[in-house]
């Protein structure tokens, strides 16, 4: 800083060289260019920042030299302040550094002391461990011996316990103490469960053999007694039980024996499950795992199972592949005949013994097993006979409905529909459904009354005017839905939904083909019937898209990622379907909507061609020479407009009769808009109008054309905005017309003036054109 001050001082004391004055030296230009500064610095010149400071504080004015002393004082004060700050920092920093170094040294010494203590302790510990290792090895061998001894003792204790329980069971059986024997078997079963994780395979095998031995003896005895008791109670109920007038004399004794035997059999449930080695039974017909049947119900099923196998296996006449309803109906009858006995006699005993079992449901589960096994055997044998296979599917579906409704079988438990979910069976079902549906579609389209509505004579029921073929087709799809609705697998349901979508698309293609054949006569009855069919199918599919069942299928399709059904979807499309904003039928609805729009457009084009042909004389009427309204007694429809109005009326009535209400509503509105543009362009803009011509045009439109559409809405003029507003402009009196023309020419935005006259559709330029079509101007 001092150097800087010196440089400034020196720079402010110019030296005279070669006789040049101070003024000339100060007034010489100072170069601040980088290259110039480098050259000058090499020659001992002042640095650039000094030159810039001089130019800023003094400049080139000689009178400013008096500022040098003040500048020197300022810089000297700043220099002194900086020196004091440097001295202060220089004096405080060594003290802090010294303190930090002292603390670090103390930490180092302390750390060395700790490390020395650690080494001493480590050496002492190693010596201690080395000395104690023999003791530890000796102790380990002793403990190992103790463990082995303890295991042997426990092993012997288990053997002793098994022998004890076995002797106890034997003694109880000798003394006919069945309850005590059952309790002992239960204890032995609990011991078996406890040894499962022990790894003592020989002990487990010995225990299991002993358990099986005594369990079989006790179970056989109890089962025999239980079967004899059931015979006395007239079990099984092959036919509907009859209510006897008076109970048997030993009814109370029979009931006591029933309760005792059921309770004893329930106590054997644990050991029975262990011996059967199926704590959860997996069915052979692809059913999900279920808990085993309770032991009393198993015994009660034995006579029914024998009867079932006697009648429906082997070479019996009742074992017929083409009559699956025989054994299915028999199973349902046994369920119904036995329900009262299970609910009134068995269920209270189960409840009192703490068994969380529904007796009626347990019996149904057992009987269902018989039906499932039978169906699993018969279904593959019917894959090559379409008629018998369809009959089997219908009977299975009917059986499932009866099971769930009449017998209140829980929906959480599997029925018999899993038989149909086997891949081979399911694929055959889909193939048959497709084949039969196509055959029915072929038949219905070739039928004589395919394109006529069966409700055509009933106006209240014929709003959609659906032809018989379309209604039959949608009924066919609805029947398919009813068949697969109950399937417990969403993926299988989605495969049927894909089939339905395929059938709908095939029917749409057939409609398109028939439509092309009828396109030469778009006003014919068959063409309109095809249009009604497309609208009917689209309406039904739209309703299905909001149906709870199809919404659930939609969520399942998104969750399962069914690309065959959904196609390649982006994140947005998948999100829409997942949030139920879209529909699984969107693609089909779009195609049907396109077909419906094309057909309706062709129909209206045909109507417009006929209307335009009838309107040609009206378009060339003498609008410029018609008498004024005051010269006529009464206004009447123009004679040249009569063919146009009659043609239009006839077509409207024809469309109303042949098209369904939604299509007719859309059709007449579109027709009105087309007619509005046609009249505006070909009648109004094509001619000039005197006062009488404008009045006649307004009368024809407002009193004749608009009322034709007044049958279908309250304000038909709203569909003829061009014509209505044009009539307003043409019928203005001369003063109003002149004023409006001036406003349109002078104001850049005359919208408010037009709105006051009721003109909203026509642009200002169009209004000027209409005003120029008027012949009734002053001076003309």
Automatic annotation (TrEMBL):
Lineage: Eukaryota, Metazoa, Chordata, Craniata, Vertebrata
Gene from which the chain derives: LOC110499792
Span list, region Disordered: 1-42
Family: Belongs to the RINT1 family.
Name listed for the protein in its UniProt record: RAD50-interacting protein 1
Any one of the GO BP annotations: regulation of ER to Golgi vesicle-mediated transport
Composition skew (Polar residues), residue ranges: 14-34
Coiled-coil boundaries: 65-92
Pfam families reported for this sequence: RINT1_TIP1
Organism of derivation: Oncorhynchus mykiss (Rainbow trout)
